[in-house]
Amino acid sequence: MSHRILIADDHPLMRTALTQTIGQAMAGAEILEVSRFDQIKPMLESGEAADIILLDLHMPGMSGLIGLMMLRAEHPAIPVIVVSASEDPVTVQRAIDYGASGFVPKSAPNTQIIEAIHAVLDGELWLPEIRGLEADAPDPAQRAATLTPQQLRVLAGIAEGKLNKQIAYEMNVAETTVKAHVTTILRKLGVLTRTQAAVLASQLALAPAPPPPVE
């Protein structure tokens, strides 16, 4: 399956490097490029819909994490991977908290950006191994309490081992909507994969009621 990937970075060499890396690893992928943040919206609204966006936090007009939040608010169904020269734990965590589905330092090897793209396209989150990134998380009940009713239905489907298309059919929504819900669920639960979400959901499941006593 071919994918359309939008690279948003003001450095021509970085865009070229990403384009070459993706082209070699993902046959048939269509690459779109912009060099300014204000070019993203017109491109997405011109019919050039993207399956995923690779976003530099420091490009002109970006305003850092504010730009990321604006992009996620306007196009919630399109996952975003932040590709940044900054790789301190605070920046990485804030990027994920504010809507990114992945974070790849520009210093990372090419294989990591491909791993990140595949993971995010599969509806998962992707983070680099950075010391100090993971803070103490609240218990599963507190995390699950932040989910909306629709997100809880999706989580229940994940816990039952259902595919996104099965969940979408049962909820009568588009599969892309379910994918967007899954990404948000993983972020709110503080996990990276569907499997981890299912394990956490199992911690919230009630044990079967004991059978009535035999008289």
Name its key features.
215 residues, alpha/beta, Rossmann fold, Arc Repressor Mutant, subunit A, 2 domains, five-stranded parallel sheet, 10 helices, 47% helix, globular, DNA binding, DNA-binding, Tscrpt_reg_LuxR_C, Sig_transdc_resp-reg_C-effctor, phosphoprotein
Would you write up a description of this structure?
The chain is globular and about 75 Å long. It is of the alpha/beta class. The model has no long low-confidence stretch (mean pLDDT 84). Helix 7 (149-159) packs across helix 8, helix 7 crosses helix 9 and helix 7 (149-159) crosses helix 10 (194-204). Helix 1 (12-25) links the parallel strand 1 and strand 2 (30-34). The longest helix has 15 residues, at 175-189. The protein has 2 domains: 4-121, Response regulator (Rossmann fold); 140-204, Arc Repressor Mutant, subunit A, CATH 1.10.10.10. The chain is built from 10 helices and 5 strands; from the N terminus they run βαβαβαβαβαααααα.
